[in-house]
Every structure is written in C-alpha cells, then in structure tokens.
Amino acid sequence: CLDSVEKDNSEYDFEYLFYINNNEDKTIEKLNDKKYNIIYEDLDDTFLKKDRFTKLAIFRQKLLEEAKKKVFDYMIMLDTDIMFNGKMFKETFKIIEKEDLEITGLNTIAYPLPFFYDWAPLFKDKFSIIKTIFQSFCSNNLIERDNFFNGFLIFKNTENFRKKINYNNDNNIDTKCEHEILCEKIRNANLKINIIPNITPLYTERSNSYYFDTGEEKVNQYENLYKKIEINDIDYRSLNFYFVILCCILISIILYIILK
C-alpha cells in the first residue's frame, strides 16, 4: 500500500512513524528493513491488563506526541488493518487543498462495514448514526461531523492541531472506543471532521467472515482484499450497499422501539 502511495504521489515527501510494543510477530524486523521511524517499547503485565480501548488511546497519544515534534504539512493517523492505494491519496489531497480542510476522514464505514459497537459511542445523538450511514453510501458530497470513526484521519498541521488535538483521557472516564476521546476533543475545540464519502479504504479485519476464519483462510482474505485495492479504484461502496441498507432499516426500527 505504501509503495503504491509513493508511486502515485511523487510530488509529496512522505515520512513514516510506527508505534510497536511487545513485538512477538517479527513486525519490527520487517519495518526495520524499510528504515521507517519506529517507537518501540516493552510494556509490563500491569499495563497490558488495562482495557483495550484505554491502551489504544495511550498508544495513539504516544504516536501523536512524537509526530508533533516533526515538521510537516499534514499528518495521517491510520489503523494498521486498513488497505488503501495511491489514487485514494491523490484524490483525497486534491479535495483537502481545494477546500482547505483542517481535519479530514475517509469513508471507513463503507466496506467492509465496521461493527456498530465500534463507532456508535461516538454519536451523542443516536439517530445521527443512521443519517451518517445513509449519507456515506448515497452521497458524494463532503459530510461535516464533530464525531466519526477515525481509522483513517488526516490532520492539517495548524495551531488547533498542535494545541487541541490529543487522545489524553483527562478525566479518566470509561470509554467504549479510543476514538471517543478524540471526538470529544474535536467537539470541545469547535472543530469538524470532513468525511469524504466516495473514497473508501478497505478494512482487512472487517472482511466477510474474517473473525470465523483462521490461519490460511485469513491470509487468503488479505490477498483477496489486496487484489481489490490494487485495481487503484477509490470507491468500493457498492460492495456492501444492500447489506448496509438492510442494517440501517433494522437499526432504525430498533431505535424507534427503544426510544418510543
């Protein structure tokens, strides 16, 4: 994916920063071959027993603090289980530069569909979930939100970004998602996330029956998704359209019954 990005976007200079802890799968060895910048640490069992979302927020904050020390125009914070291509980057930055966007999110809820519990906590108004899903699948216009599942988020290096954007859980509140903390900071700063609905990176671990497959089957799913992304298309919403519409209808009915 990164090779594709550099090939199709030679007008930009890229620098990569990875956070890794307790390396057990030789990830760090593979990254060292590429001479990427790596933040690495071994964490003790006490820390590792913290809940998953607390840990993820802390890891993201470590990465963010290191990134803010560098000189750059834009920073892209993305999950490692997302596949993308160079054309997605090219088209994204055309829009960002034209519209002068400060915070931009790509449509990571399109395909494969993230589980609702991942990003439902981000929305204070639960009905806005349904609205966002429909807009994400049925519109090509920018969607402006103060909350969104941010597995692929792009920040312009502004004063707002340097001073107000972080993943620190200041009040040590329970969180259902590491993105919830960041969305709260964005709301408090009166900022918005601009979602580009027709640019849709693909999640590997949300693919079809990923969680029910093991070993070679998972490897095959990675390969199949890479073949899709290698086509260098940018909009994969049609792959899940009817499934999502059905989910929206069902969730709308459930919410209506609960809130009636």
Overview of this protein structure:
With 260 residues, the chain is of the alpha/beta class. It has helices spanning 2-8, 27-34, 45-48, 52-67, 86-99, 116-119, 127-138, 159-164, 178-188, 216-230, 241-259; strands at 17-21, 37-41, 74-78, 82-83, 103-106, 143-145, 152-156, 193-196, 202-203. A five-stranded mixed β-sheet has the order 3-7-5-8-6, with helices on one face. It has a two-stranded parallel sheet with strand order 1-2.
Q: In angstroms, what separates the terminal alpha carbons?
A: 46 Å
Largest sheet properties: 5 strands, mixed
How many helix segments?
A: 11
Determine Rg (CA atoms, Å): 18 Å
Percent helix among the residues? 40-55%
Spatially, the strands of the biggest sheet line up as 3-7-5-8-6
What's the total number of strands?
9
The overall pLDDT, averaged over residues, is 78
What structural category do the secondary elements indicate? alpha/beta
Residues in β-strands, percent: 5-15%
Low-pLDDT residue intervals, each spanning 5 or more residues = 112-118, 208-214
Overall 3D shape: globular
Topology pattern, helix = H, strand = E? HEHEHHEEHEHHEEHHEEHH
SSE arrangement:
Elements: H1 2-8, E1 17-21, H2 27-34, E2 37-41, H3 45-48, H4 52-67, E3 74-78, E4 82-83, H5 86-99, E5 103-106, H6 116-119, H7 127-138, E6 143-145, E7 152-156, H8 159-164, H9 178-188, E8 193-196, E9 202-203, H10 216-230, H11 241-259
Parallel strand pairs: 1-2, 5-8
Antiparallel strand pairs: 3-7, 4-9, 5-7, 6-8
Helix pairs in contact: 1-5, 7-11
